[in-house]
Write a structure and sequence with these properties.
With about 575 residues, the protein is of the alpha+beta class. The chain has eleven helices and 18 strands. It has helices at about 1-65, 70-75, 85-95, 125-135, 175-180, 270-390, 395-425, 435-450, 470-490, 545-555, 580; strands spanning about 100-105, 110-115, 140-145, 150-160, 165-175, 190-195, 200, 230-235, 235-240, 250-260, 265-270, 430-435, 455-460, 465-470, 495-505, 510-515, 560-565, 570-575. The strands form four sheets. The chain has a six-stranded antiparallel beta sheet with strand order 7-6-11-10-9-8. Strand 6 and strand 7 form a beta hairpin. Helix 8 runs parallel beside helix 9. The longest helix has about 120 residues, at about 270-390. It is rod-shaped, with a radius of gyration of 76 Å. The structure holds adenosine-5'-triphosphate (ATP) and magnesium ion.
Amino acid sequence: MRAIIRHRYAIRLAFALLLATVSGGVWWFGYGQALAQIEERGKSDLALAADWLTAQLQRYQELAVLMAPHPTLVALSGGRGGEGAAKALLLDAADKTTARAVVYADSEGHVLASAFGDAGEILRGRPYFERALHGALGVYHDVDPASGRRAFHFAAPSFASDGRVQGVLVVSVDVTSVEENWRGDGPPVFFVDDNKRVFITNRSELLFWERRGDMAGLVPPVGARPAFREITRAGYALWRLDWGPYVPNLGLHLVKPLPVIGMTAEAVIDAAPARQLAGLQAAVVAALILAFGIFLDQAMRRRQVLAQANAVLEERVAARTEALSLSNTQLRREITERQEAEAALKKAQADLVQAGKLSALGQMSAGISHELNQPLMAIRQYADNAALFLEREKPEVAGDNLGRISAMAARMARIIKNLRAFARNESEPMGKVDLVQVIETAVELTSARLRAEDVRLTWDMPEGAVLAWGGEVRLVQVFVNLINNAADAMAGVADKEITISLRHDARLAVDVADTGPGIEDPDRIFEPFYSTKAVGSSDGMGLGLSISYGLVQSFGGAIRGSNSARGAVFTVELDPWSEEAAA
Ligand SMILES: Nc1ncnc2c1ncn2[C@@H]1O[C@H](COP(=O)(O)OP(=O)(O)OP(=O)(O)O)[C@@H](O)[C@H]1O
Ligand SMILES: [Mg+2]
């Protein structure tokens, strides 16, 4: 868990670094682009201002050059008079060009004519005059110490026929009047002269500010230095300054040299919009990255939660599976146990059936031995008699005796065969059984006992076979039991009679009725080990009816016992056998 948290912190740190790097890069690039645009616009603004100024001054320069060789002025310098005409000429020119002063001087520097004021001024020593004396065009600017006004001076020479400079025409311009139409327009532009002093500007507060030494910024001639710092951003040199409300606090510094008028044009272009634009771009990119990061973080967290839930689920499934397989094996074990118990039960039932049969045989053994003994004695008698008749040469009678012997032997064989079949301990298949034959056998097996106990048996045997579903030996066992029980019940009764009848309704039904005392407790007779007979006696296990019940039920039949007016009646119901049902 701690590892996961540490991992998440590392990812967040990496993401923050990425965010800072990318948005910083966007800022830098965007700032550079915006500054490039601003620089381009600023350069054209600066060029426009410089061109405008030089064009303004050019007029006066050209005026000086064109007027210097004027014949009126030349005549004046030749001492040929005409001062009035010359003054009028100069005044006319000054009025038309709004020049502050137009004067004509001789080579000595004496002013011969002036548009305003009087002649007589000495120009000797003034730089522009000296340059004109040398045949060049004199350009100079200065500040009038008396009025404090700035002025530009243009001095053009007038050459004599021998090439000598015979006179100089000077045109002076008031810079303030030039500036007038320009002030406050566009970005701050200032023209710095050779003395590193602001001489012309569209921001009057910057006038006469100076650049001292090799410093980049400017300072006012008197008073405290305003804040100034030169910084580099996105490859551009920017000025951060506090030069009053009309100069931007952050500006791009541009320079354009103007050698014609001996100055440098400089401008401070506001860089704040570029900074704002770059800041905006960086903020947008940062916001996008941040949103993406948050989305990613949420997705990761959701995935983690899902994985945890999955793990819990898997754990539960595994636990359930284990429990299930455990109960499965338990179930399988129980099934095996049940199967084993069932097999044991079946075996016990089979054993019981066998025990029941043996018990019945025990009950009948006396009768059976009598049944076999009697014909044996008779056979012996008949055989002796047959021998005697043969001696007396009466072969017909002897043959008759032998026939009887044969019949008796056959009857004994049948009895023994029935006994063996009855006592056999093996399962027989269920199928077609002749019910008449079954009852015949049961009667035959019990006849010896009944005769010994003086019991009458009435059995109205139907003609032909009556076929039922069942097992022959087991059905015989059922009827032997019923006959034996009836005989047992009638032990103390004078008139002993068993009536067996076969009915054929929806099912086949065999009634075994007796003339005994009836059933004591009809509800309990089919319970195993329920017996009213003497405990410990050979007859009285209480199993006969319960075994019979199981056997009949296994054939799909039913057995029940009730009391009638004369005694007890037991009814065995069976399904009739049919070809279709067997198929
Ligand atoms: N025909 C009958 N008349 C009166 N009571 C009967 C008759 N048949 C059966 N019973 C009663 O039902 C009881 C149970 O009979 P069942 O054949 O199951 O056992 P048992 O005859 O007592 O002993 P076993 O048959 O095991 O030797 C008998 O003890 C008897 O009380
Ligand atoms: Mg019995």
